[in-house]
Structures are given as C-alpha cells and as structure tokens.
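Input record (Table S2, row 186):
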Amino acid sequence: MKKTMVFAISITLALVFGWQVAQGDDDDDWRIGQSWKRTADVAPINNPDYVEECGDCHMAFSPGLLPARSWKKLMGGLEDHFGDNAELDPDTQTVLTQYLLDNSADSSDYRRSRKVMRSLASNQTPLRITKVPYIQHEHDEIPARMITDNIDVGSLSNCMACHQQADKGSFSERDIAIPGYGSWDD
Ligand code: HEC
Ligand code: HEC
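Output record (heme C complex):
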C-alpha cells in the first residue's frame, strides 16, 4: 500500500473512533457503533459459578461496576464480608477472583463501566458499588422513603428491587420500577 493511502485510512479510523469516544459522554442510546451494547450498560454476567457463589445472599453484582483493585481487596477479605462470612474454597476463590479482575470496570468498555472509572480517583478503592461516586450521584435525588424506609427495598445495595434488568447488565430508565412507587420521572 502507498504511504498516502495508509495515512488516509489512519485518519478515517481516528475520526470515527474519536467521534464515538466524544459521544460516549452523553446518556442517549442512539449512538452508531453502539447498537451491540444497546441493551446492556455493563457487560452481562457470563459465569454460572460466580452467580452460584456470589448470588446467594444478594444479586450477583456485575464485575463491571467496580475496578479491579476493589475486587482484589474484597476477595481478599471474604471471611469478614460486610459482617458475614463468605469464604470460598481456595480453588474457587482463585478462579472467581480472576473472573472479577478480567471483567472489572477498568477492563470493560461498556459505558457504565467507563463512567464508574471516570468518577473514581486513582487512590480510591471502594468495597461497595454504592460508594462509587458515579453510582451515588445517580441516586442522590431519590428520597429515603423510596429506599431505606421502603420495606421492599431496604438499601441502595438492593439494585434488583428497582432495576428489573440489573442481572442482565441493564440500568436503563425504562427498566426502573421502584416498589410501591413505579417508574421514575425526573
Ligand atoms: C453469606 C452471604 C454473602 C455471600 C455468600 C456473599 N455476600 Fe456479598 N454481601 C453480603 C452482605 C450481608 C453485604 C452487605 C449488604 C448491605 O449492606 O446491604 C454484601 C455486600 C456486597 C457488596 C457491596 C454491595 C454494595 O453495597 O455496593 C459486594 C460488591 C459484594 N457483596 C460482593 C460479593 C461477592 C463478589 C461475593 C462472592 C465471592 C459475595 N458478595 C458473596 C453477603 C454475602
Ligand atoms: C430505590 C430504587 C433503586 C435502587 C435500589 C437502585 N437504583 Fe439505580 N437508579 C434508580 C433510579 C430511580 C434511577 C434514575 C435516577 C435519575 O435518573 O435521576 C437510577 C439510576 C441508576 C443508574 C443510571 C442509569 C441512567 O439511565 O443513567 C445506574 C447505573 C444505576 N442506577 C445503578 C444501580 C446499581 C448498580 C444499584 C445497586 C448497587 C442501584 N442502581 C440501586 C433507582 C434505584
């Protein structure tokens, strides 16, 4: 190939990618090149062992909602997991830790994962998804009567109570129904 041709192709690619990255900041669903991610905001969970081991006491949280450093820390302290013992046998622990690291927010290009990462300073290692600034910010207008004072919800950690498709990685507003209140109009 001629040099000018290679140059022209590189420029075209750079423009297309640049445009997509620039569009990545807004919340609309219409972006081109994104239709393959249309239904999921974070990568859907594709590991049955993870769902079995980590989806017993609460929903299996998407790996793409926390950075690798958070999963590493959380998996290193399962014997005291938010007051519960969630210990695994060593083999399972190794395999699931690797699964979480491979699919963490910093290695995903799904849009909510990117937003999680962008909201965190590099020295922040939250052990809770609900402590991630982006997640906190998205919920700061929801009154307590709909969350903590709502017996069908209890806490913000209970994603599935309101986001009916959370287990499929979708947090889209059309899939939100707050128990006792219904859909959310802001
Ligand atoms: C024995 C029960 C149990 C098991 C098993 C368990 N957890 Fe938990 N987990 C909890 C409890 C209790 C909390 C705190 C819930 C709360 O504060 O509402 C929690 C909270 C979490 C949170 C923070 C949620 C938030 O508030 O943002 C994450 C992340 C998490 N667990 C990941 C895992 C992973 C990964 C596994 C599998 C290795 C796992 N859990 C297995 C009981 C469990
Ligand atoms: C009490 C119900 C409720 C719970 C529990 C809840 N959310 Fe939400 N969430 C909402 C509502 C309502 C909005 C829309 C807020 C707005 O647009 O102002 C929202 C917005 C979001 C958004 C942004 C969606 C968008 O379209 O921009 C994400 C991502 C999200 N929630 C993730 C989570 C995760 C992860 C959890 C669990 C750790 C969780 N939510 C728990 C009600 C809830």
